[in-house]
Amino acid sequence: MKYKRGADTTRSTIFHLMNLQGLPKIHGLRDDDLFLLLDADELPSREVLLFLKLYDGYTEPVRFGFRWTVFGFFWLKATDPSLLSKV
User: Fold this and answer.
1) Is the bond preceding 81 in cis, omega lying within 30 degrees of 0?
2) DSSP string, 30-75
3) Given a cut of 50, is residue 10 above it in pLDDT?
4) d(Cα 21, Cα 50) in Å, to the nearest integer?
5) Can you give the C-alpha Rg of the chain in angstroms?
6) What's the distance, Cα to Cα, between the start and end of the chain in Å?
7) How far apart are CA 70 and CA 48, in angstroms?
8) Are 58 and 52 in contact (CB under 8 A)?
9) What digits encode the pLDDT tens for the residues 31-80?
10) With bands split at pLDDT 50, 70 and 90, how would you rate the model's confidence at 2?
């Protein structure tokens, strides 16, 4: 298989190899099983997953459109150490 050059080359390669080498190692696969290959920050809603589970007849592959969100983790710095026990 030829891979396109560009930003998604590595991602496409990883997903392709996961398909070729990973799926044969999973035992008990059924025709109606779903596999979602997503990044760690791509989280489909519960409603979308329920739709994919229950509705039969959508075309494959399915493309998700995610909203861009910004989140972060920050250290709490308190001048008084006793404040940390109240968090």
Assistant:
1) no
2) -TT-------TT----HHHHHHHHH-----SS----PPP-------
3) yes
4) 28
5) 20
6) 53
7) 21
8) yes
9) 878 888 777 778 888 898 888 888 887 777 788 877 777 666 667 666 67
10) low
